[in-house]
Specification:
four-stranded antiparallel beta sheet, mainly beta
Length: 359
């Protein structure tokens, strides 16, 4: 993938007045792998809040949640042109689906229903279409102390570990990261390891695995912290061992952490902050997994809810939701630092970016 001359970027957005949004749907771009320059290919419009996207394991199908609603959509992808064609839509049997992921066998979709505190499991057909929910699991536990943000369980993501055996689910309402597995024969989600406990009021939002598989990094939204964890690939157990701020000690205002991602070479972890609109850079110790702050790069806009590293790890693209822009940064692979390339893509309320190579 890293040797391709170009690849496609798919950008999800928020579209509704309730979200003060200016997005129009899913935008497709062709990206020059050498320069990081984006060229618009397609707008898939008339979609409500296609706010998070995911591919199946073949890359031939794209899936989108519809934030604040109760369903998700499937699309067929043309590998040559990058363009999308709608396939079907299914209910998630919950409210505000915020994240989705396909299992390694390309048989099931897992969806986090943020407001109704559930994980949904949906079978996938060979043609990429979604079947109705076959299992729905309610997350339970002691809610956090934040009266507004933690009134009940709030699963915010569903991520498969590098082996594809386990699903890690950060829950913003319960200050826990749950671990599930799929019982394919019964079409059920089963809890695998006990949930990992984060600091009270932390609000775990997203998790990113080290490519080596031994470590994982959790970004906590409410207290703006990053937690390094050991991951037991045999059991799925997550064990926190280090906590650092996602903000520099010179920042004294209000901010919330959002996204986290590990570089493809496993040397650095990046984390975004909304309020202190920036991308934090942390060096990873290869032996211990501990992180050390390297610096903070302004995101080039307002509210970087999301960012993504390109497939080769040469660029970081910051999705600045409230300034309607995706800003490009070149990555110094030796030091992890970010340098603006001068390239900016104007697009309404961007909140997710996923990549696939051109065929």
């Amino acid at each position: 993938m890293s040797q391709a001359s170009s690849y496609f970027a798919y950008v999800g957005s928020r579209t509704t007045k309730e979200r003060n949004a200016r997005g129009l749907g899913i935008n497709v771009y062709r990206v020059d792998a050498k320069t990081g320059r984006w060229t618009h290919v397609q707008l898939v419009k008339d979609l409500i809040n296609p706010s998070f996207l995911a591919f199946d394991r073949s890359g031939g199908f794209l899936y989108s949640v519809h934030g604040d609603l109760s369903d998700i959509s499937s699309f067929m992808r043309d590998g040559k042109t990058g363009e999308l064609k709608p396939l079907n839509r299914q209910s998630t049997e919950g409210k505000n689906p915020v994240h989705l992921a396909v299992d390694p066998t390309n048989t099931f979709m897992v969806v986090s229903n943020h407001i109704t505190s559930t994980l949904a499991l949906l079978p996938l057909r060979p043609d990429g279409a979604l079947e109705p929910v076959c299992d729905l699991v309610k997350l339970e536990g002691k809610i956090g102390p934040h009266r507004v943000e933690q009134p009940f369980a709030k699963p915010h993501q569903a991520v498969f570990d590098p082996s594809g055996r386990y699903i890690l689910v950060p829950d913003k309402g319960l200050d826990r990261v749950f671990c599930y597995a799929i019982d394919a024969s019964r079409k059920k989600l089963v809890q695998a390891a006990p949930p990992a406990e984060m600091r009270e009021g932390a609000g775990p939002r997203h998790i990113a695995f080290h490519p080596g598989g031994a470590f994982a990094y959790v970004i906590n939204e409410l207290d703006s912290t990053l937690v390094a964890c050991r991951f037991d690939a045999a059991t799925g157990a997550l064990a926190p061992f280090q906590l650092v701020s996602s903000l520099p000690d010179t920042f004294t205002g209000n901010s919330r952490a959002a996204e986290i991602e590990v570089s493809p070479d496993g040397r650095f972890v990046y984390a975004s902050n909304r309020g202190f609109d920036s991308i934090g850079v942390y060096a990873i110790d290869a032996k211990t997994g501990r992180v050390t702050p390297v610096g903070w790069q302004p995101s080039g806009g307002k509210t970087p809810r999301f960012f993504a590293l390109d497939p080769a790890g040469n660029f970081l693209f910051a999705a600045n939701e409230d300034s309607d822009a995706i800003v490009s940064f070149a990555i110094d692979k030796q030091r992890g630092l970010l340098k603006p390339t001068g390239e900016t893509v104007a697009t309404g309320s961007p909140v997710c970016i996923v990549f696939k190579p051109a065929v």
